[in-house]
Amino acid sequence: MKPTRAVFGFHAVLARLRADAASVTEIYLDENRKDARAKDLALAAEKAGVALMRVPTRRLDGFYGGGRHQGVVAMVFDKPSRESLEDLLDSVKEPPLLLVLDGVTDPHNLGASLRVADAAGAHAVIAPKDRAAGIGAVVSKVASGAAESIPYYMVTNLARTLDDLKERSIWIVGAEESADKTIYESELPVSIAWVLGAEGEGMRRLTRERCDLLVRIPMSGSVASLNVSVASGVCLFESRRRRSGGA
Description:
Helix content: 25-40%
Radius of gyration: 20 Å
CATH superfamily of the largest domain: SPOUT methyltransferase, trefoil knot domain
Number of domains: 2
Number of helices: 9
Structural class: alpha/beta
Distance between the termini: 54 Å
Strand order of the largest sheet: 7-6-5-9-8-10
Largest sheet: 6 strands, parallel
CATH architecture of the largest domain: 3-Layer(aba) Sandwich
Number of strands: 10
CATH topology of the largest domain: Alpha/beta knot
Order of helices and strands: EHEHEHEHEHEHEHEEHEH
């Protein structure tokens, strides 16, 4: 069986080794990298029993036409499907904190959003199959390891999935710039699925109609909106702040 995709960058490769070393078939490391990060990676690969080959920089450049690989590329098998969203929610020991991305098709935005969600301790990220970026090399690199750790579910029918979440008493809260109240003025539920649309387009009508509450992030400067990953961070960390007893 041939490797299905490449993962590049030290954070992403190390995260994949730690999360699922058996899925890593081989690692290519720039022969000019003699620093501590390269040595740590080589040691981790040796412990995991994964072949590591020192190669010229130009060979790594060939993977992405000179892309920013940081001197390391790993060839990996796609991991088998993780547990279902329903099983994950059944196993969560605290009120669920979820991020729903409606229409985020740019891999850089998805990677950054996964990184933010992981940092905020979200339990999963959900997106519709027909309007979302999948996990690929760029997403893994931008996510800095989060793509290998946080569950990412691409669902066939997002509206139905949101209805299912509501059945579990998880509130669907949408972030939209036209909302009457700001995120700081609103009472936020503990069990929450934050819904954000793509920058410019926003949420689709059916997605918006599923929201129990709409809030906006107040903007004080000259720009009208935030990048979706930044907005995700504001929303998720506000939920975390309130859970920790913040006023």
